[in-house]
Each structure stands twice: as C-alpha cells, then as structure tokens.
C-alpha cells in the first residue's frame, strides 16, 4: 500500500468535524482520487471532553495545537481553529518551520499575515492552501490560480458574506427593518460571535484582500480595503432601489486601475436581473473577469460544515497528489506592493435624502450637485403632503470624491433633514 498522507487536525468545531466526517465516509473515494490514503493522526481542541458527534477514538489528542503541528506522525496540519493571531498563527508557523504543509480555512489569519506566511512557506519549501477561507464551498482560489492562470485578471467581484446577503434579502422579502432582521439572524446562529465581522464587511473584506493578491499579483493588503457595512441600509433604500430596477448587495470589487489597486467591500446597487442581483439568502457568488475568458460566475454555499470541509479536502487531496502551487499563485517574493486607490473608477450613484417640502429645495440640491460637477440622470420625489419629502436621485457617472463634495454642500442648503445616503451603482 502507498504511504498515507497523515493529517493533524487543529480545531474540532463546525469545519473540523466536517473534515472528519468526509474522511471517515469517503476513505475509499479519497484513496482512489489521491492515489494514497488520507488519514488523521492527531486532533486538538480546547475541551477534550466535549461530545462532537464524531468518533475520535482512533486519533491521538493534543491539548496544544503547536505540539500537534510538531508531531512526527503529522505531514499536513489542518488549521480550523480561527483567529488572526494566537494559536492559529503559532500552529501554522510551527508546522511550516517543521517542514509540513498547512491547509487552513482562516481568512483572518491570511488577511493579516498571508504575505509573511507565504514567505515562510517559500523558504521552507512547503505549501499553504486556503480554498475554504474564501467563499466557503466555491472553488474560487483554484479557479484563479489554476483554471484562469493564462488570463490577465481585469476585475474580481463578489458577494462573499452569506449573513449580510441573508439580512438584505430578508429585509426586502419581509419588509422588515435592519434591526429586526439582525436579531433574527442572531437567533438563527448566522452571526459571528462578534457580529461586526459580518455586518461591517470585515470578514468579506478579508476574503477580497486574498482574491486581490492572487488576481493582481500584489501583496495582501487588507488595510487598504475600503470597508462599509450594511447597518445604514434602510428598508426605504431597498424599496427605492427596487423601484429603479436594482437590488442592494454588500459587494466586493477589486480591480487594478491607472491610479492603483482599488479594493472595496461596500453596499452597492446592482441590476436586479444580473446574476449578482438575483442572489438570494446566504448563498455566495464570485464573478471573475479575465482578458481571454471574459466573465466567469461562480455561485454556491459560502459557509457551513459540508461546504467548508469540502474545500478543505480539495486542498488536502491536492497535497496528497503532490500538487504544489504557491499560496498566491506565484512566488511570494514576486508579489508587488500596490498603490491603494480609493474608488478610482467613476460610477453612477444613488442618492436619497429627506428635504423640507418648500419651494426651491430641489433647486438648491441640484445646484450643489452641479457645483460638484455631477449631472442628474433621474430624480424622484415622494410624499408631497408631508412637511418633509424623501427625494431619490440617480446621478450620471461620477467619482466618489465628487459625491462627498456634494454631500458636504447639501448640509449648507438648509433644506436637508438628517443624513443623506449615497450608494454606488455597480455595472456588473
Ligand atoms: N463555519 C463556517 O461555515 C466557516 C466557513 C469558512 C471558513 N471558516 C473558518 O474556519 C475556521 C473554523 O471555523 P469553525 O466555524 O469551525 O469554528 P468553531 O466551530 O468555533 O470551532 C473552532 C475550533 O477550534 C478550537 N480551538 C479554538 N481555540 C483553540 C485553542 N487555543 N487550542 C485548541 N483548539 C482551539 C475549538 O475548540 P473547542 O471546540 O474545544 O472550543 C473548536 O473546536 C475559522 O477560521 C473560520 O473563519 C468557517
């Protein structure tokens, strides 16, 4: 029999137990595909006594994931504990230093330390794989690093946080405000322990920064991702956007522009009939655009035990087959430092504001837009009988900086009540 590939599994939560289930259920299938058996030598978690619904009796136990990473009977460390630092980073570095390969689902670790870890992996001659870290079960890393390797990548877009997409689509379908749906999502267990990772776009921003590095050959630069969460999106915006033929998505966009690398994870209006516009509930979608291939749309489950473990196992089986690809699809030393460019590509914007319903109010707003060099495509005013009236404006293509100038000018008009809302309309 050929030599088995022996795993050390650090983390026995949702993803870790999913990996065990696949290995226990599909042993023969995996052996046939990998050309050798894939086995588990040892596991690690915090609470040894917890019943995890899987049989762990055949595996050695380590309280310390770093000790697990250093074991002689472990070839590959599967890090599925989570956290950008602490035990996840320590175990990953210990594994690399010991000459072992690492498979991780941990986007936070990679977004903050991916560059440094890729260098360590290169120096040690090992590999670091992270398919599960981006868009769960969707094999997007493989698509970029392998299938599309002959393309110059023009743009990467995606809805990569299922919880945000669930909240936005549920607000729309049930006509409920953000706060109510947020609490529903919390009760259903959809939110991270720290919900801001989801609703402020941080988790999705981590994922986008990893895709950017692969797509554009740049160092991972999460700090330059422009982040804006969904907490300010109101049911009114969702309705008005719908009337205009759009839906609101927390959309990640990365593209190399003449001014540098633009990376943003912000709410956007997308055409309701586009693949991104039609995305419902917790599903993820990644859109990849290459010069030769055109546009590729990948859609699937972005989280959960089965989908995430599926992605982990794809990486493990590649390692068992002897497939070696640098973490970001090229040598770490060849990744360049990109100049960050904030929203460098002009776009139309959706503006919503509440105006005092008095003569000349709209004219003052139009003047501010004109002064900022912004022309109006469409304008609608609602509820004339009230002392105030909501107004929705769709602009022609403009820069975000110009929108910010206009928004600042609105405050001096004396006719705007509360804070105006500005949301980019993305051509997808
Ligand atoms: N869940 C998903 O759908 C999903 C999707 C994509 C990516 N991911 C990523 O996958 C990773 C794991 O997620 P998860 O949902 O499986 O998390 P989880 O259910 O919270 O499980 C985490 C596991 O790590 C163990 N652990 C934490 N700190 C530890 C320490 N200091 N020493 C040893 N073990 C430790 C925990 O032990 P105890 O059980 O004893 O507490 C637990 O078994 C994260 O990086 C996450 O971002 C998850």
Features:
ten-stranded mixed beta sheet; 25% strand; elongated; 428 residues; 36% helix; binds NADP nicotinamide-adenine-dinucleotide phosphate; Alpha-Beta Plaits; 3 domains; single chain; Dihydrodipicolinate Reductase, domain 2; alpha/beta; six-stranded parallel beta sheet; Rossmann fold
Brief overview:
This protein has 428 residues and is of the alpha/beta class. 36% of the residues lie in helices and 25% in strands.
Describe the SSE topology.
Layout: E1 5-10, H1 14-25, H2 27-34, E2 38-44, E3 60-62, H3 65-70, E4 76-79, H4 86-97, E5 101-104, H5 107-124, E6 128-129, H6 140-147, E7 153-159, H7 162-174, H8 178-187, H9 196-199, H10 202-216, E8 226-227, H11 235-243, E9 246-257, E10 260-271, E11 283-290, E12 294-301, H12 305-321, E13 349-356, H13 361-371, E14 376-381, E15 388-395, H14 400-411, E16 416-425
Parallel strand pairs: 1-2, 1-4, 2-3, 4-5, 5-6, 8-10, 10-16
Antiparallel strand pairs: 7-9, 7-11, 9-10, 11-12, 13-15, 13-16, 14-15
Helix pairs in contact: 1-12, 4-5, 5-10, 7-8, 13-14
Bound molecules: NADP nicotinamide-adenine-dinucleotide phosphate.
GO molecular function: homoserine dehydrogenase activity; NADP binding
Pfam families: ACT, Homoserine_dh, NAD_binding_3
Enzyme class: oxidoreductase
């Amino acid at each position: 029999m050929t030599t088995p590939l022996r795993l050390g599994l650090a983390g026995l939560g949702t993803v870790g137990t999913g990996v065990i289930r696949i290995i226990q259920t599909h042993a023969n299938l995996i052996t046939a595909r990998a050309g050798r058996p894939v086995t588990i030598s040892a596991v690690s978690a915090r609470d040894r006594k917890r019943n995890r619904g899987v049989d762990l009796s055949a595996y050695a136990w380590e309280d310390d994931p770093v000790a697990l990473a250093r074991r002689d009977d472990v070839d590959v460390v599967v890090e599925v504990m989570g956290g950008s630092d602490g035990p996840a980073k320590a175990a990953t570095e210990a594994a690399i230093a010991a000459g072992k390969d690492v498979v991780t689902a941990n986007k936070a670790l990679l977004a903050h330390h991916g560059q440094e870890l890729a260098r360590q992996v290169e120096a040690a001659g090992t590999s670091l794989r992270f398919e599960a870290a981006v868009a769960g079960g969707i094999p997007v890393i493989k698509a970029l690093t392998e299938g599309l390797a002959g393309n110059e990548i023009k743009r990467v877009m995606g809805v990569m946080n299922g919880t945000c997409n669930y909240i936005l689509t549920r607000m729309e379908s049930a006509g409920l405000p953000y706060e109510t749906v947020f609490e529903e999502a919390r009760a259903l267990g959809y939110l991270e322990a720290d919900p801001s990772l989801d609703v402020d776009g941080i988790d999705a921003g981590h994922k986008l920064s990893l895709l950017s590095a692969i797509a554009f050959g740049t160092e991972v630069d999460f700090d330059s991702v422009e982040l804006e969460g969904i907490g300010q999106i109101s049911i009114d915006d969702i309705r008005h956007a719908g009337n205009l033929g759009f839906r609101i998505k927390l959309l990640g966009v990365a593209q190399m522009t003449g001014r540098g690398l633009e990376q943003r994870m912000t709410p956007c209006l997308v055409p309701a009939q586009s693949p991104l516009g039609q995305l419902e509930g917790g599903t993820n979608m990644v859109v990849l655009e290459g010069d030769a291939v055109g546009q590729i749309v990948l859609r699937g489950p972005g989280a959960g035990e089965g989908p995430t473990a599926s992605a982990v196992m794809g990486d493990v089986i590649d390692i068992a087959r002897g497939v070696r690809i640098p973490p970001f699809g090229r040598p770490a030393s060849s990744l360049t430092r990109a100049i960050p460019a904030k929203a460098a590509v002009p776009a139309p914007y959706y503006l919503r504001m509440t105006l005092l319903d008095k003569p000349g109010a709209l004219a003052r707003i139009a003047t501010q837009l004109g002064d900022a060099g912004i022309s109006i495509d469409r304008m609608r005013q609602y509820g004339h009988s009230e002392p105030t009236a909501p107004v929705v404006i769709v602009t022609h293509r403009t820069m975000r900086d110009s929108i910010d100038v206009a928004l600042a000018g609105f405050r001096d008009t004396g006719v705007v009540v509360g804070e105006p809302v500005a949301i980019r309309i993305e051509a997808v």
